[in-house]
Specification:
This protein is an alpha/beta fold and 267 residues long. The chain is 33% helix and 25% strand. It has one domain (3-265): Zn-dependent exopeptidases (Aminopeptidase), CATH 3.40.630.40. The protein has a six-stranded mixed sheet with strand order 3-2-4-9-7-8, sandwiched between helices. Strands 1-10 form a two-stranded antiparallel ribbon.
């Protein structure tokens, strides 16, 4: 079973009647294969080391956001090739090795590597909302600069559901803040993917009202992650500073308070 170890804590409280809690997650933080499933990857070659295995830089980005804002963090380092925590059970892309597992083994894999993670995120969201807070959920990801021969023309993507006014407003403010802090960055909304597709944020939207839950997937171009160290460092600083500006720009404004950070690891 996955273990969730509290390390420190943090929430963001507004100065008005409505309180906002920031939650950070990282579904594709590493390319680790638990020992029980190692035999499934003996002929995988270098796939585990590519963008198919994990999101380069996403975990570090999530950790720094969490640390900067004292926000809860739920993260996994198990490779998405074994199980994609950002896909629903039954989705065709939930696992690249699903067909090699028996029904019993599939159930065990979901029980070991998938359900504990998703349950912990659900618990944190429900707990904050149950306390009368609005949740702003930042899910940290990164994308390959080129896919199927097509160049992705963005440095930062902000994915959200345009039908939900709170998410549209939040991403509009965040994009403006990034351009203010780092004008050289190319920032696009709902790019390189649409934010309303299958994913953890979409799952949570079905369970919580737009007033209570704001889910945003942060996508960073991996060309910046694997490029020069200074550029990658500046990008992370710009994302964090722009997020601070965005949270402070909301009405009512958001201020920092102490809360709890949670980390997830899977054996």
């Amino acid at each position: 079973m996955s273990k969730f170890a509290p390390r420190s804590s943090g929430v963001h409280n507004s100065n008005g009647n409505v309180k906002t809690s920031l939650l950070v997650t990282c579904e594709h933080g590493g390319n680790r294969v638990p020992r029980r499933y190692a035999h499934l990857f003996r002929r995988s070659g270098r796939r585990l080391e590519t963008h198919r295995g994990f999101d380069f830089g996403a975990l570090l980005m999530a950790q720094e956001i969490s640390q900067c804002f004292d926000a809860p963090l739920v993260a996994s380092t198990v490779t998405r090739l074994l199980v994609d925590l950002n896909r629903s059970v039954g989705h065709r892309d939930i696992s690249r090795v699903y067909r090699e597992l028996s029904p019993v083994e599939r159930e065990r894999m979901l029980r070991d590597c998938y359900l504990p993670y998703r349950s912990e995120v659900e618990r944190l969201v429900a707990k904050a909302i149950g306390c009368g807070r609005r949740v702003v959920h930042i899910s940290s990801h990164s994308f390959t600069p080129r896919l199927h021969g097509k160049v992705r023309r963005a440095d930062v993507g902000l994915l959200y559901d345009p039908v939900r006014p709170g998410e549209s407003a939040f991403c509009r403010l965040w994009k403006a803040a990034i351009k203010r802090v780092a004008p050289e960055l190319r920032v696009r909304r709902n790019y390189p993917y649409y934010g309303k597709g299958d994913g953890l944020t979409s799952y949570l939207r079905l369970r919580h009202s737009p007033d209570a839950y704001v889910g945003v997937e942060l996508e960073i171009n991996q060309a910046l992650v694997i490029g020069t160290k200074g550029r990658w460092t500046r990008l992370r600083a710009s994302v964090i500073e722009s997020l601070r500006i965005t949270l402070e720009s909301e009405s009512p404004p958001v201020s920092v308070a102490r809360g709890r950070v949670t980390a997830a690891t899977t054996p």
